[in-house]
Amino acid sequence: MNENTNQIKIGEKYTIDLIDITHSGEGVGRLNNMIVFVDGGIPGDVVEIEIINVKKTYAQGKLLSIIESSPERVNPDCPYFNECGGCQILHMSYQGQLRAKSKMVKDALERIGGFKEIPISPIIGMEEPLRYRNKAQFKLDKNGMGFYAKKSHHLVHIEDCLNQPDSAANVIKTVNNLVKELNLSIYDERTNKGYVRGVLQRTNLQGENMITLIINGKDLSQRQAIVEGILAGVPNVKSIYVNINREKGNVILGKKSLCVHGAARLVEKIGDLSFSISPNSFFQVNSKQTVKLYDKIKDLAALTGTETIFDLYCGTGTIGLYLANKAKKVVGIESVGDAVLDARENAGLNQIENATFYQGRVEEEMMRIIKEEALKPDLIILDPPRKGCEESLLSTINNMQTPRIIYVSCNPATLSRDMKIMTESGYTINEIQPIDLFPGTGHVETVVLMSREK
Which among 219, 284, 307, 418 counts the fewest CB atoms within 10 Å? Predict the structure, then answer.
């Protein structure tokens, strides 16, 4: 530790100005040239803190009082905000949230990518940043349903969630009542005993609901009573599933889902396309913003009808299918088998014949397709997980000199790292567009168009 670091000691109290915020919702300030993280603080606050942890390069402070409130600070409408771990920045005004997310993207590009004074388009936000999620995974214990507290497995019991549709309150009340009335035991992950593990609610833009009861058992006991109870208590139920998860631990969904009432699939419309959703399907959780995201990708793609598109890390094929009517051919590659099956089903559902989906490791499968089918992409869509792309994949793309890349990222840090690799290999950044898919949280989506001259 340097000399300055030693001046900060655990247990000491300080007044500090907060100048930034992390994606996990911690305010950021400086003491003696050391970064200090303060949970509950936001940029513009002047706060009194107690130092609770000191590391080599940073310290953590406990918020004792707010001496001067930030102009961005608001009282959250959610009564559970200070306990629940679902949202991180609901105590900021929505415009403040958008400014903070734009800054997260800009700072990562500068710090990690080395991109100075790079133009970033104004972030695309929501008109109404509440009730936007189409998927909720509720945990439960003997006292009812809820979500985990921040950084813990302590359950915060709730009656509603302002990120979920209005019908979430009905689901919580109905399942809580059924557990009591039918005397259903609750799963305990420490002993691997108990019956009900959780509840999954999926909702489309039409307000139709798919309710999945997750159990530690072979079959749904008291099926008729449970189905009748859900139908009576929850509006517009399209289907009811039971998901069987007998594995130890706290992973919510098991691999096997059985439809016990109604339609086997929930259908969501994004633009002119329909997408089939099952309990285990991956799908963007904010359908309204997904339309804006995909429209932006289509705008950047500027397709003429002659292009071959490779959609890498394609998931259930939604982006590739959204572009297919403007392209010559779409090739989607994904490592998760169930997602590939969903992608093929969605292609059939929309009668799209120029899109083909393959399962495999992205780089290996891409090279096989290029060699065996003599296909070469004019545009590559990259939509990797949070860890970003494998460097070997980026090297392969660079060697192919693919004319245009659209990179869709949920992590500004790995995006910046990968963009640095691409620009050092000859790509030019044409546009950077942040999009807010998760209001109230520290997550931000970013779409980047890169191109190169052959």
Answer: 219
